[in-house]
Amino acid sequence: MRLRQEGPGMRTARGIGRECAAELIGTYVLVFFGTGAVHVAAFTRGTAGLWEVAVVWGIAIALAVYATGAVSGAHINPAVTLAFVAFRRFPARKAPLYVLSQLLGAGAAAATLYALFHNVIGQFELANGLVRGQPGSELSAMAYGEYFPNPASLGTTPRAFESVTELQAMLAEGIGTAFLAFFVFALTDARNRGRPSGTLLALFIGLAVSVVISVVAPLTQAGLNPARDFGPRLFSYFAGWGRVAIPGPRGGFFWVYILAPCLGALVGAAVHEFVVAPGLVASPEAAARQQAAQEKDECRNLG
Questions:
Q1: Measured on CA atoms in the order 64, 66, 71, 74, is the torsion positive or negative?
Q2: pTM (2 decimals)?
Q3: 152: which DSSP letter?
Q4: Could you tell me the domains of the chain?
């Protein structure tokens, strides 16, 4: 029997398939545990406050990076993928596949959480006089998509809406994601002698997200990730929240939770690459490792 030999195209397709699977799984892990913590906080009062939720998000990101980073780089965020295309020579042809995988992972995690919590959510809505899909039901929809201001912190009344304008929400999401991208680029730059090494890297990326959430979440729920927002938001649209989910009671979700994080990630990455990175001087060993890693990535991208 003659075995069929694999050509370069087949190997490339298989490699991209594995990377996309890793992005889907990594984003699923991120959203399941991070959004799951929001479910627990909103519907069962099982967490004491914002910092506990923020820490769960951070740990979820670290675990996702540990689990999938060696395969795909664990972008698990379209804004990060965009920044890597712009500044780290990540192949633009892969970006749409990565983003689609991230959206699918986020949506699948939202569906899983709904299967687990839908009875609890129904009891919460009944106890609080909420009609799903009607004004005020952001208090339950917030476990999936984000809202500004945070309904749990500042409420859903017209007076509450005045506390955070659409422009302020865009700034909050943009600045928060800029910090995230800045820290990701700084922590993954081999020339940065002050960065944590080895297995601590993913943990500190997770902690960076936690500190950003602790400041931004009262204003916008700290999406910082278009896939984390849109995947669950789209699911909640079909799960009964309808126009409360998309376009939302105030509209603007595209500008605040998709466009602003993407722009913020570009700004944060640019600050590192053009302001901080030129001042970094790598040790010879680190420079050699970075050169070898870049050559390996280029070979993989061409293969």
A1: positive
A2: 0.89
A3: H
A4: 8-302 (1.20.1080.10)
